[in-house]
Amino acid sequence: MFDRWQFGVYGIVAALFVFIIEFPRGKRQSGKTIERRFQKIFTHIVKLGGIVTRNYFVRFVLYLILTVPCCFILPTLIGGVCFLITGIIYFVAAIKGEEWIPAGLDEPSHEGPTVMHPPRHPPPRRASPSTSRQNRV
C-alpha cells in the first residue's frame, strides 16, 4: 500500500460511475442515432436517474465535484483534469440548451444492419493515354 491510496480507490469508483452515465448515446436532434451494443441496459439506468443524469448543467456540477479529490495525488491527476474538461464541455452544452434524451427505447429495434446492394454498372472511367493512341491507329 502507498500513502493516500483511498484517492486511487475513489478514482476507480468515480470512473465506473462515469462509465454508467456516459455509455448510452443520447438521441440526436435529427432523430437518427446508432446505438451502441448493450446500450439499452445503461439507457434504462440513466433514464431512472431523472434530472440528475439528463440535465447537462447538473452533470457539469457533478464533474466539478468529481474533479476535486482526483487532484490530490499524481496518479489520479490526469483523470481529474479530464473530469474538469468534461465539466466545461457540459457547461457549454447546458448554456446552449441541450439535454440528454434516451435513444432506442421508443423505437422498435432493428435486427441487423441495413443491407446495401452493390452497384449494377461500373463507374465511368477516363480513357488512358495508351488506349487513346491505339484508337488513333
In brief:
The protein contains six helices and no strands. It has 137 residues and is an all-alpha fold.
Word description of this protein:
The structure is a single chain. With 137 residues, the chain is mainly α. The chain has one domain. Helix content is 54%, strand content 0%. The protein is built from 6 helices and no strands. It has helices at 5-22, 39-48, 51-54, 56-70, 77-95, 129-136. The longest helix has 19 residues, at 77-95. The model has no long low-confidence stretch (mean pLDDT 81).
Can you lay out the helices and strands and say which pair or pack?
Elements: H1 5-22, H2 39-48, H3 51-54, H4 56-70, H5 77-95, H6 129-136
Helix pairs in contact: 4-5
Unreliable stretches: none
Tell me the count of domains: 1
Helical content (DSSP H or I, runs of 4+): 40-55%
What's the gyration radius in Å?
Answer: 25 Å
Number of strands: 0
Order of helices and strands: HHHHHH
Largest sheet: none
General shape = elongated
Number of helices: 6
Mean pLDDT: 81
Q: How big a fraction of the residues is strand? A: under 5%
**End-to-end C-alpha gap:** 86 Å
Summing up helix and strand content along with how strands pair, one would put the structural category as mainly alpha
